[in-house]
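Re: duplicated header lines in exported structure tokens

Our pipeline writes sequence and tokens for each protein into one text file. With two proteins the header for the second block appears twice in some exports. Here is an export where it did not happen, for reference. First protein block:
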Amino acid sequence: MNREQAKEILLSYRPGRDDTVDPQIVEALQLLDQDTELAGWFAEHQRADEVIRARVRETPVPADLKERILAEQKIVRPEFAWRKPVFIAAAAAVIVLGLVSLWTLRAGAGNGLSAYRAEMVRVVENGYSMSVKANNFDQLRQILTEKQWPSDFIVPDHLRDVTVVGGSALEWKGHKVALACMKDHSRGLWLFVVENTAFPHAPDSETPSVQMVNSSPTAIWSQSGNTYLLTAQGDEAFLKKYLP
């Protein structure tokens, strides 16, 4: 395991949880004793997480927040949305109020592929607005073009038979990211596309690099000036069926 791989794995590590049963996390933690630069980065990352937790804990919860949230337009979620625990209203309210601080601090954690991969997985896991309704890739490209968003992406052959349900126009550190939302039966797949210029060191291979982030399989590769990230609701074996 090299330093960049360790960083990517440690982005999902939270002390006090059962993550240490994951052999990849154990190996990454052991590497801290051998790599002073990695140890310094990890200490800074942990300090940022503690600031996030402190701000969330300090955020007051308005008594009428639940009603205000319910009155807002609901986020569109695909029917294959990730299953997540149902939190009590007060806890959800605190998370909503702390969201801006959370994403702002996360944005400062890094601008490389590891940070991008982890952030896009959080977009899928934590809920997002599917602002584009489309039934196929051509329709999705047309709508993204009208929004002046990246639309010249290349769809892997194995993804051409899945069901397209829509997409979204996102931003990451000032760069436009196109998201295609798909499903295969009851499982979701998400393809993120951004220009290579979004990264100091973009991937230089068309061969996908597969990595687990939290419990989500992800793959990153580069093709024709774009960086592609595919994640799915399943395991690595399921994800690999759709890779180029």
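Second protein block, exported in the same file:
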Amino acid sequence: MKRFFLAACLLAAAIFVRAQTADEVITKYIAVMGGKDKLNSIQSLHFTGISTGQNGNEVTTDIWKVNNKLFRRNINFGMGSVTTLITDKGGCQTNVRNGGAFEAMQDQQRNNQLYEMDCAGPLVDYAAKGHKAELLGKETIDGKECYKIKLTTKEGRELNYYIDAATSYINRLSYKGRGRPAAGGGQGEEIDIAVNYSNYDKTPDGYTFPFSQTISGGFGGTMTFEKIEVNPKIDDKLYKAE
């Protein structure tokens, strides 16, 4: 009985230390990004990114966010566009197979992307938001030693953050996603997607962001943000499926 009690105490202590360590890593990340107050002051965002498609055409991506109310991403390929729209009331996206018409998302598909509406980022006040964070040790990403934090959102989405042990910036975000839909519709096969972040810099009003990101898995590619606006006025029409 005593041995069982001792083992239980040791296990509880190990879990406590592990949680404390995850919080320390996240706290350092929040600090280098400007601090909790600075991040929580972000109520809306507009990103404009430029990349080059596989055919050599310029691809423009515009992303709008309103905290807990809107996430809209428009990708313009030059010969067409794709839009994803998520709000606090529903979600839809355009289907190129259906002439670019908007189609409603399945509940799970929308739930997997709700964290995108969080302007401060889901790591900030993660417990108060209903998420869970766990430190899974260290891994080397592109020659840099990183802490691996698994964040499980309240909706059950698993996001793996690789936080640079030296700078405390996020070097990579990885998660399970879906590939191209199969012929005849439906969801594509589950694939591993990784987003590598770089070129961290400050906006004129003092907010820190990575101005470059490289995605492997899915459509892939490298995008550079030419413009990042913090707390801009968001047009009401962006909430509409049009």
